[in-house]
Design a protein that fits this description.
heterotetramer; A alpha+beta (91); B alpha+beta (191); C alpha/beta (419); D alpha+beta (1004); A: alpha+beta; four-stranded antiparallel beta sheet; two-stranded antiparallel sheet; 2 helices; D: 1004 residues; alpha+beta; 23 helices; 28% strand; binds flavin-adenine dinucleotide; binds nicotinamide-adenine-dinucleotide; binds flavin mononucleotide; binds zinc ion
Chain lengths: 91, 191, 419, 1004
């Protein structure tokens, strides 16, 4: 069971979260060219090893977290709130 | 204002069930009728200001931090999300005053029902429902946590030596039946 | 190749099993091959077999980093079916089904393909209507498909949870020709037949890089030294992104996830068909000839290369099992394992040339590549040998996403974990 | 001769006799017996039949590594197959029976397979059964017989009556195993104030001490263990509880048998608990498992592990036979032989080592054990039970010279010990081969996980105790935050004279049938055959021979099999490598993982606030995701679905109807940037939507495909309520939070769910306004005050007062319609008040079937059409897309295939022949081309009184209705054996300008 250290709630089971994929994808402006959107929506690094990803604490504090996890050992190195302004407010 | 219907209507008649031991039922289940629920949400750069407004509405010193709650005249103020407090009370209260520049207020008086779990074996029952350590040492009176109960989101408040389970109204009966189903083994009573 | 049949088994019994020949060897890699296939799973081995058999390309090597058939080919729940709706998939999987129906004879190896019917339970009128469209498309393409109403289902599988489930079972859509096969036998059958045709299967040989000359790839770097090749076929399933990066293809529309499977203790016959359901949950179960119930459901929803799963999926899968077969409550899970599935952005695979000359890609198999093994090998061999797709894999291109032609059976969109 | 009960001794409770049945015959044991010990005490020898050859099998161990005695316990719905008799605690009234045999295990026709065993070598089924001439028919013919012969026990066909709980546990330290090491560790940790859990799979604490005569701190081992256990105050001790799996985050899965043992059959309590423990640290003190040796006929009933033979004596006061031969290759067998001799069992000890340890040999001889060093077991005599053992001396060529046969009725064999490192393997750690001790020791340990006792190759009891304490001390240090200094733990070892590795006994001139995996009938010859045929990786050998794939998961056979393979390949054991350890350590019932999520409780049921009001009035229900929605409201009991929905739909067209719409997703969107946010999310604009007005909107996914649609209400300058479809409510909410928290952090918007705050009723039909006005206490809903897509606040008069409501002019049916929203607590009163007025106007309540009919006639799309593959243009909503402001999905919606003109578009279908019908899922084909993928499909059908009264379909057709003017199409429905001709028409035929929705009613 992945135990995810939510900065707001503390360590919690993966069952309270929803995995929302690669956090390193930057989405272009809404009216950016088709090619930029194609790469953001369809192509993934999918690394074996350290991976920066999004977890949504859906059955918890509803916060999105940016988590650094190793996709081979499943070891979780860090977790921080995804929303910058809120992160600063809580620090 | 007319009386509010409960989602447990027809299913919460007082009774005892399961093997109650010599010292009475291990678990007591009841529904707690809320009259007002306000969601107070701060803009990130106005957290303190919104918190102060929330504290004022609840009649408490300061707005509680993560995992905590504070109870005053205006009800119980719980920190449920990084930028949000929930103010619940059994009496009707006015909409909390909050400058729109500091955040927003949302009326949720009817959105949840509160199921109260008490009794000497309440912690054992809860260990069969939610993936949290609710023993007093780890989850003292006034503690708050959002978690999941059989795939249903729920907010738990440690209160009066037992637990308030804030459940979305439409899931109220389903969670109530799960409580009854699991509590039978400890000897239980619907109060 | 030594003939396997009843006579040979009797002869084996009388001679103390002395006369059996080796099924494959441990050859050292040659410096150059016409074609190198990376990945000794079902798809890689089948590709090598069809290259040698259909296209007479015999100077072929299959490079496998572990033991052949040790990837998903050795870990799947062995379900074989061709009940697909979207153009591109329908034709491909039926092409595979036809190859399955004679595979034991082609390979002279009993792959135990047992056509015991694939029964897809339906829980709501909306689900029944949505699936009617898929099974009608199947029938219009000459693929068998029928609907069992409540009474038929009650007669065929009396111990299903007909009356006490959370959702009423309204019936089931069935493909009678579908069923299961013995996964290891498929890998070993293809490996033996390919070896007999002159293919080198080199185990314990990990491809660690590619050799470039000018724009083209001229070979691979491996844990057993450099091997040159005119054409290179990637068939590494869950490791596809890693290989694509090394080959210079950049990012693929793929995420690798752990998919778990479970086997029960061996039992006398209790599940005769393949029983599955989707929509309200996701579950599939069948019984192997040794008596173990083989079952699974959703994948672990996060990216992973770990080949081991976590507890929440046990609860999710087995609660779904108990929902439809509550009589299995006291039957015990004997073993849980996991594979590494290459989930694509629309749930459908790629068997295609790439923008790099001489490099061919076979990937994106999600939950369903075992049933595709024969057709995948057959069409990938054709694509490599002819440098052009076979009709059956014409639709399975990488460029389909740019064209807006997602082959999305579930309609869940570009979220790999949902397919 | 067979086993018999000793007059005294053992840890059983002779004051509590227990009667049970075996194959229908009544037998007697005592509390503290296992089924195996009670059967042995009753002289039963053949308890099972093996998997392939159906050879007779008896008890082969005293623990979970049992390879022989698999039985079925319980009858009817509580029938439980494949239990190891050694793990079944004897309980009053227990009904046990043999399995995998006909007529019974003592006389089994299946035994004939053994005669043909020479033809049934490993993998024979890959080489035959294919039949001639292609196809799968011949194989499937043979398969029926194979399936009946294979499998072991027969499961119940009735639902499991018992329930199980999933329990969430937390602790500082979890100790796995309550032998000397575990008891010591738990004791010290508790003394130092840690919150400790100790789990033990047995029903008694003490581990190996329970089965040995060894004394600890000069008292019997079992007594010492009981004392240590009693001293464990504050420790949560769980017996009958197996740690079956170690997972990421050091989370451990336990299965606790609650009600499967004597004296506790309370119906309210679950049969078992699946416990998920989250310890800060773990100490694995799981001990070691004795290994057999592969020699001739080593599967006959009466052959068992040497430690087990002693355990039946010491723990259960059962002598396994009258004359025993103990054969081993290490020091541990001497204590076993002495225990047997001590119970007046005539005992011979064969020590494979040339030089037996002098003091042990002397002590053994002292109690009458006939010790022979340099001797090994060659072949057991007897069929349904051991009658003798051929013994011999190893020769230089590696084979054994046979000497003589010794009469005996029990053979205790020991080939060494395998530390139970399985749980460490679950997370991928590979064990390390220790050549000198001939066993695999724990390899790399994960942080937070320590080992103690014989699991780490520490063999002496006092060293195990010291090791337990050291591990506990390290845990205390680690949890106190101080850097844990490595306490001095005892090194592996503890045997006076080294073990002599002995895996298999072979004769030069004759092949012995020696079993490595007795359950799957895998012989050493099978392992060599696999190597010879090229299946020479241990993983290939395992799968080709099925070694270690039976219910004991190779706990005793795997290392022996690996040694035989290594020898066949002329390699060392570490070079060959072990297969993978996988959960569960021992099998766990499926019911335990399902917990309470059974039958109706599999997924929670959601009810709208007006559920009870409609249920009391006889509504018939259907499912929409987790919600229950009224399907139809029978006018009288037994009214059919079709009669009801036609009647209900007609009421909406002619007078007034009311439907519960509370299940729609409702999301509050608040803040100064709320309008900008909605502008980006929806294809159409919301910035200029006036306050107290609402607007229909459509959302796309990032890839340009339609995601969801719904009406958004503007309740204030900075406050909207966006409504979504029932199915996508949760997904839409998560999608809004994704955008706000990870893509557009600068937007000042808060979103929150309002779905459960409001109950909603849609009141539709020409007399809708009249019905609502009759119930209004306050508020004006005239066409002027409340125009189409307008919103007003009002008050309804209900039985005990007035309730505030919001009313919006929204129409899904195409008629004049109002959606009335009351707070959930007031919603039942609203429903009753409005329904009374609707009935007064000649109207009725209607359900989702009628709702479907009405929206199909009107040409509105729903989830049936928006199947995750269609675009805005496909669904006839292309004109909604804003040209002036950007929105999610706009870029990828332009991809070539999505912009093609000949894509299937929304259309209506009318049967050409009057009275004909067609169904959803039919495929639209061109005349004469009824094959392939067709040119469209049907998504909805209904009787359509408002459009000429005939049958009506909605769906998609290539190029849209205009491409099929005046041409008929074929609706192919082979699954239902139907094919009908249809005319294609625009889906917007009913009141295309929307006068009914927008203006005064022109008719009625
Ligand atoms: C638990 C589970 C259940 C499944 N159930 C079904 C089912 O019921 N029906 C169905 O149709 N499909 C099923 N599948 C999917 C199916 O098993 C796979 O899609 C299919 O096996 C993939 O193709 P493959 O056999 O070639 O893959 P693999 O067997 O994974 O082959 C890839 C091989 O490449 C090797 N490799 C990787 N990298 C390198 C390298 N750098 N150098 C050399 N070699 C390398 C790997 O070791 C591996 O052996 C299931 C999969 C799993 C995991
Ligand atoms: N003389 C020898 O060669 C030799 C060899 C092995 C063991 N021993 C003796 O065995 C004892 C070893 O002590 P120890 O404490 O290390 O081991 P142990 O075998 O005494 O105790 C281990 C305990 O763990 C339990 N267990 C194992 N796996 C479990 C699981 N997954 N879940 C729950 N319970 C589980 C077992 O039932 C057992 O009770 C000593 O007395 C030692 O002398 C001697
Ligand atoms: C179809 C199928 C049937 C299996 N049956 C059994 C079985 O009866 N007993 C068993 O122990 N393992 C069984 N396994 C699991 C394998 O032993 C092994 O766990 C799996 O091939 C993954 O390999 P790994 O565990 O070495 O990683 C089966 C696997 C598959 C795919
Ligand atoms: Zn959180």
């Amino acid at each position: 069971m992945l135990r995810i250290p939510c900065p707001f709630c503390g360590p919690r089971d993966e069952t309270e979260f929803s995995y929302e994929g690669d956090a390193s994808v930057t989405y272009p402006a809404l009216d950016a060219p088709e090619e930029d959107w194609f790469e953001a929506v369809f192509l993934r690094d999918n690394p074996r090893g350290p991976h920066t990803e999004l977890w949504h604490h859906a059955n918890g504090c509803r916060a999105f977290l940016v988590v650094e996890r190793d996709t081979l050992s499943h070891e979780i190195r860090s977790a921080r709130l995804a929303h910058g302004p809120t992160r600063e407010a809580l620090e | 204002m007319p009386e509010r219907a409960s989602p447990l209507e027809g299913h919460d008649a007082p009774r005892r069930f399961g093997p109650t031991g010599p010292d009475g039922p291990g678990v007591r289940l009841s529904e707690r009728r809320l009259a007002s629920v306000w969601l107070i949400a701060a803009w990130p750069d106005r957290l303190a200001a919104a918190g102060a407004a929330a504290a004022k509405a609840a009649g408490v010193e300061a707005a509680p931090g993560p995992g905590a709650s504070a109870t005053g005249e205006g009800g119980t103020l719980m920190r449920v999300e990084p930028l949000k407090w929930l103010l619940i009370g059994e009496a009707e209260t006015a909409r909390p005053g909050l400058d729109p520049a500091d955040g927003t207020v949302l009326e949720l008086g009817h959105a949840r029902t509160v199921l109260h779990v008490a009794g000497p074996r309440a912690v054992e029952l809860m260990a069969r429902l939610v993936p949290l350590d609710l023993r007093p040492a780890k989850f003292p009176e006034g503690a708050v946590a959002g978690t999941v109960l059989h795939h249903v989101g729920v907010t738990i408040l440690a209160r009066d030596g037992g637990f308030d389970l804030l459940v979305l109204r439409s899931f109220g009966l389903a969670v109530w039946e799960t409580l009854i189903d699991t509590a039978a083994q400890f000897g239980a009573e619907i109060a | 190749m030594q003939r396997y049949n009843l006579l040979s088994v009797i002869c084996g019994g009388l001679t103390g099993q002395k006369h059996w020949q080796r099924v494959w060897g441990h050859p050292e890699p040659k410096p150059h091959y016409d074609v190198v296939i990376v990945g000794g799973g079902g798809h890689g081995l089948a590709t090598a077999y069809y290259l040698a058999k259909e296209h007479k390309v015999r100077n072929v090597a299959v490079l496998e980093k572990g033991w052949l058939g040790g990837g998903n080919a050795g870990r799947n729940t062995t379900i074989v079916r061709s009940n697909y709706m979207i153009e591109g998939n329908t034709e491909f999987y039926e092409h595979s089904m036809k190859l399955w129906e004679n595979l034991s004879h082609d390979l002279n190896y009993n792959v135990m393909f047992s056509q015991r019917a694939h029964v897809n339970l339906v829980f709501s009128p909306a689900q029944r209507d949505a699936m009617a469209r898929r099974y009608n498309i199947m029938r219009l393409n000459g693929i068998d498909g029928e609907f069992w109403d409540r009474d038929t289902l009650r007669r065929r599988i009396p111990h299903l949870n007909h009356d006490h489930g959370r959702f009423p079972i309204l019936g089931a859509y069935v493909q009678p020709r579908a069923g299961t096969a013995r996964h290891d036998a498929v890998n070993w059958g293809y490996a033996r037949a390919a070896t007999a045709l002159g293919v080198d299967i080199i185990q314990g040989c990990e491809v660690t890089g590619f050799i470039r000359k000018g724009g083209a790839l001229t070979g691979v770097e491996t844990s057993k030294g450099e091997i040159l090749a005119d054409r290179i076929g990637l068939a590494v399933a869950g490791s596809s992104s890693l290989m694509a990066h090394k080959a210079g293809l950049g990012k693929l529309p793929i995420e690798s996830h752990v998919l778990q499977a479970y086997v029960s203790e061996p039992l006398k016959p209790v599940v005769d068909q393949v029983i599955v359901f989707g929509g309200v949950g996701h579950f599939y179960i069948s019984q192997s000839d040794k008596g173990g119930l083989i079952f699974g459901g959703d994948l672990d929803h996060y990216n992973s290369y770990a080949q081991k799963g976590n507890l929440p999926v046990y609860e999710h899968v087995i609660a779904a099992c108990m929902q439809v077969l509550p009589c299995l409550g006291r039957v015990r899970v004997l073993r849980q394992w996991a594979g590494l599935v290459d989930m694509s952005m629309d749930g459908s695979p790629f068997i295609t040339k790439t923008e790099i000359p001489g490099l061919y890609l076979n990937a994106g198999w999600c939950y369903g590549g075992f049933k595709a093994t024969p057709a995948s090998g057959h069409t990938f061999a054709h694509t490599i040998a002819r440098d052009a797709p076979h009709p059956a894999n014409a639709g399975l291109t990488l460029s389909r996403y740019r064209e807006g032609r997602q082959i999305d059976e579930s309609g869940r969109g570009p979220v790999p974990k949902l397919h | 001769m067979t086993g018999f009960r000793l007059p005294d001794g053992g840890l059983i409770d002779r004051t509590r006799p227990v009667t049970f049945t075996w194959d229908g015959r009544q037998l007697r044991g005592f509390a503290g017996d296992t089924l195996a010990s009670a059967l042995m005490a009753s002289g039963e020898r053949v308890l099972a039949r093996s998997f392939k050859y159906h050879r007779p099998r008896g008890v082969m161990s005293a623990g979970v590594e049992e390879g022989g005695a698999l039985v079925t316990v319980g009858t009817g719905a509580r029938r439980t197959p494949n239990l190891k008799a050694t793990e079944v605690e004897l309980a009053p009234g227990l009904a046990a029976s043999g399995q995998n045999a006909w007529p019974n295990v003592r006389f089994d026709l299946g035994g004939v397979n053994d005669l043909f065993s020479r033809f049934l070598a490993a993998g024979f089924y890959y080489k035959t059964f294919m039949g001639l001439g292609g196809g799968t028919r011949q194989w499937m013919f043979f398969e029926r017989f194979i399936r009946r012969a294979a499998g072991m026990g027969t499961p119940a066909r009735e639902p499991d009556p018992d329930r199980y709980d999933v329990v969430h546990d937390f602790c500082d330290l979890l100790v796995i195993g309550a032998g000397p090491a575990g008891l010591a560790a738990a004791g010290l940790a508790a003394e130092r104030g840690l919150d400790v859990m100790l789990v033990e799979q047995d029903f008694a604490l003490g581990g190996a001490l329970l089965g040995s005569a060894e004394r600890v701190e000069d008292k019997p081992g079992a007594a010492w263990a009981a004392e240590r256990a009693a001293a464990l105050e504050g420790v949560r001790v769980l017996t009958r509880t197996t740690a079956f799996g170690l997972y990421d985050g050091n989370v451990v899965g336990l299965y606790e048998r609650v009600c499967d043992h004597p004296g506790d059959t309370d119906p309210a309590r679950p049969r078992g608990n699946l416990r998920i423990v989250r310890p800060a640290r773990i100490i694995l003190a799981s001990g070691a498992i004795e290994r057999p040796v592969a020699f001739g006929n080593n599967d006959r009933p009466g052959v068992m592990l040497a430690g087990a033979a002693a355990a039946y004596l010491n723990r259960f006061a059962v002598a396994p036979g009258r004359r025993a031969v103990i054969a081993g290759n290490g020091d541990s067998v001497y204590a076993d032989a002495m225990a047997l001799a001590g119970a007046r069992v005539e005992t011979m000890l064969l020590d494979a080592r040339e030089m037996a340890p002098p003091e042990l040999a002397e002590a053994a001889a002292g109690v009458g054990v006939e010790v022979h060093s340099g001797y090994v077991p060659v072949e057991a005599a007897g069929r349904n039970g051991v009658t003798g053992l051929a013994i011999g001396r190893p020769a230089r060529d590696g084979h054994v010279r046979l000497e003589r046969t010794v009469p005996c009725d029990v053979i205790g064999v020991s080939g060494g010990w395998s530390p139970a490192v399985h749980l460490l393997g679950h997370r991928g750690a590979r064990p390390v081969w220790h050549a000198e001790m001939a066993c695999f020791l724990p390899g790399r340990l994960y942080d937070g996980v320590a080992v103690a006792g014989s699991v780490a190759g520490v063999w002496r009891t006092e060293d195990c105790v010291a090791h337990g304490r050291a591990a506990a001390a390290e845990a205390v240090e680690a949890l106190s935050g101080r850097r844990p200094k490595a306490p001095e733990a005892p090194a592996p070892g503890g045997w006076d004279t080294p073990i002599l590795p002995l895996w298999e006994v072979t004769l030069k001139h004759r092949k012995l049938k020696s079993f490595i995996d007795p359950q799957n009938d895998v012989t050493s010859a099978d392992v060599r055959l696999a190597a010879r045929e090229g299946y020479d990786s241990p993983e290939h050998m395992k799968r080709y021979t099925t070694l270690g794939m039976a219910p004991d998961q190779g706990k005793v056979g795997n290392v022996v099999g690996l040694a035989v393979l290594a020898e066949a390949l002329d390699r060392t054991i570490p070079q060959t490598g072990l297969t993978t350890f996988r959960p569960p350590y021992t099998p766990v019932p499926l019911g335990a993982f399902a917990g309470r999520a059974r039958d109706r409780h599999w997924q929670a049921e959601r009810q709208t606030p007006m559920h009870k009001a409609q249920d009391d009035a006889g509504a018939v229900w259907t499912d929409a995701g987790l919600w229950k929605r009224a399907w139809y409201h029978p006018a009288q009991p037994g009214e059919s679905l079709e009669d009801a929905y036609v009647r209900e739909a007609a009421a909406v067209r002619e007078t007034v109807g009311m439907v519960d719409v509370s299940t729609l997703g409702k999301i509050a969107v608040q803040g100064p940037d709320a309008a900008e946010f909605l502008n980006r999310v929806y294809v159409n604009g919301f910035a200029k939507l006036p306050v107290m007005k609402c607007r229909y909107g459509v959302m796309l996914r990032d890839d340009g495909i339609v995601f969801d649609d719904g009406v958004t209400w503007r309740l204030g300058e900075d406050e909207f309520m966006a409504t979504t479809t029932t199915a996508n409510a949760a997904a839409a909410m998560a999608w809004f939070e994704t955008l706000l928290q990870t893509r557009w952090p600068e937007l000042r918007v808060h979103v929150a769910s309002l779905t459960d705050q409001w109950g909603g009723a849609a009141v539709a039909g020409p007399r809708a306004r009249a019905a609502i006005e009759a119930a209004l206490a306050e508020g004006d809903i005239s066409n002027e005050a409340l125009p189409f897509m307008g919103i007003v606040r009002a008050k309804l008069r209900v039985r005990d007062g007035e309730i505030p409501v919001m009313i919006a002019r929204i129409s899904f049916s195409g008629e004049l319609a109002f959606e009335v929203y009351a707070r959930s607590g007031h919603a039942p009163a609203m429903w009753r008040a409005l329904l009374a007025q609707a009935k007064a106007q000649g109207g009725t309540a209607y359900g989702v079937e009628a709702l479907g009919a009405l929206r199909i006639e009107k040409g509105h799309v729903t989830g049936a059409e928006l199947d995750g593959r269609v675009t805005l243009e496909d669904s006839g909503l292309g004109r909604m897309a804003s040209k002036t402001k950007p929105f999610i999905g706009m870029a990828l919606a332009k991809r070539p295939d999505l912009a093609r003109e000949d894509r299937p578009r929304l259309a209506h279908f009318h049967p050409v022949t009057e009275g004909e019908r067609f169904s959803v899922g039919a495929i639209v084909c061109e005349e004469g081309k009824v094959a392939g993928h067709g040119i469209g499909w049907l998504t909805g059908v209904t009787a359509a009184p408002a459009l000429g009264g005939g049958w009506l379909g909605i769906g998609f057709v290539r190029g849209g209705p205009q491409a099929w003017e005046g041409r008929t199409v074929v609706l192919a429905d082979p699954v239902r054996g139907r094919e009908t001709r249809a005319r294609v028409a625009s889906p917007h035929q009913l009141d295309p300008e929307g006068e009914r929705m927008k203006g005064e009613p022109t008719h009625a």
